[in-house]
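Replying to the earlier thread about multi-chain prediction with a worked example.

Input:
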Amino acid sequence: MTGVPPTAVGTGRRFGRRSRTREDAFDRPRFLKLYSGLVYLYLFIPIAVVVLFSFNSVKSLQSFQGFSTQWYSDFLNDPTLRESLFVSLRIAVITMVIATIIGTALAIGLVRARTRWSPAANILMLIPLVTPEIVAGVSALLIFSQLGIQLSFWTIVIAHITFSISYVTVVVRGRLASMGDEVEQAAMDLGATRFQAVRLVLLPELWPAIVAAGLLTFALSFDDFVLSFFTTGEDAQPLPVRIWSAIRFGVSPTINAIGTLMMVVSLTAVVAAVLLPRFFGRKESGIKVLTGQEGG
Amino acid sequence: MSDRAFWSRFLLPGGLWLLLLFAVPICLVLALSFGYTDDLGRAVYSNTLANYTDAFDPLYIPVLLRSIGYALATAVLCLLLGYPIAYYIARYGGRRKHLLIALLVIPFFVNYLVRTYAWVALLADEGLLNSALKDVGLIDTGIQFVNTPYAVIGGLVYGYLVFMILPIYASLERMDGALIEAGKDLFGKPSRVFLHVTLPQTKQGILAGCVLVFLPAVGDFVSAQLLGGPDTYMVGNLIQDQFFAASNWPFGSALTVVMMLFLSIWMLGYLRSAAREARDPVAAGGV
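Result:
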């Protein structure tokens, strides 16, 4: 590639321009724009339907008759559904806190520690990400029954934490990998202990990723159905498990109302995950933190 | 305390948690797959292969093959839908890049059950789509969408599309745009530039996307349950049945193991590339 005279490059360009044919449509933004627009429509139409019909004044999912909030009051006045909402929220908060702490520590360990256990720990951390949820559900059910633990609120929490740790680790490690350890080293040269270096240097640097990972975990746990389905007992059923039994009795506008409310809760968490890093005085976007692109 | 000992402490809580609550339980599934249910319907650990011979019974083989087939179709459709949009955003998104990606991700934070349920409402025999088509006069009698393989695959595509788009988008973002310009000078035609430059450069993202879509799709039982019927049941439905309705845990465990074996090649491939990326993110990016 080296040594191509500038004139040759120029000829190539001109040649390319002259031979513009139908094939150019391949890389023409207009075609891609249309295609992408259609995909966006495909993604949003079902959701628009759910939201729209959650405000329908009649119990129909085919024609919209008028605006009403009766399905929302039905939902919030139903004691079992209201309880399920709080169960889901509590599970998501506890999962978020514990999984974020454990997952962050694991990320730090995986990047900074070089022991012979590191590769094994790395594989162990990655496997849950590629395991179908049903496998995790089945295995959680088996271990609880083997240990004689009755399915309850806490069995759901434990299953959720197990599945969330890896997400936190991947997000936090993405940021950690893009940072060197020079600042920590400098802090320690200046007299900080290793523990202080972690607390005062490493964690503040990682904070945006930790917050983003935590909120992502909250949203994943709040929306989870499969794991909860396998680990829910008689009491304390989270919302998705209730939705599952309700859907099988047919469609109902109350499900639309629940779905819309759940969407608001998860999206609040996700929007916060994207925006909060900025409040920490950083210019980079939370999306980059979440997709692990920054610095890479 | 040595430096190494200090840092390895961080590995301990997560490593132990995953070992005891993830690895050990999966071994339990393997162990129970050789068990049987006694007369009282309790699961007993044993060393029989009966569950595996049952799993490969002509009755169940179609279910296994169907699951693989649906999941493959899902991965291909996700690639066809996802690649162009990832390409558009990465190349032409400009300042709205982050907004466009955020818009893609939003639907996936609507509960999966609710999203699938939305498709049921749209596609049902008396659903929105059929009544709209009738109103316009395109059809007289309703078209049956629900209970067909197309509906189940459609539900899976809708459920997992984002897992295809994000890794491809990330690999396109990592790619140097100058390569495309250089490719234009070398090859001229945009289609050839795409085939010889862009596609090989984003191979890693495509593979990651396919694995991340294929794996959960094989184990999915929500789409087949809500949008399909007995003729479209997948292995996930079968497993779920064994643990709830049929209460035959050893057979359910054996089916889970068989499914995992089918998936292990894909899982290993993904783990290898992920491990490589963790060691050397730049080299794995292919630049």
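The domain at 54-284 of chain B is CATH 1.10.3720.10 (MetI-like fold).

Feel free to reuse this layout for your own posts.
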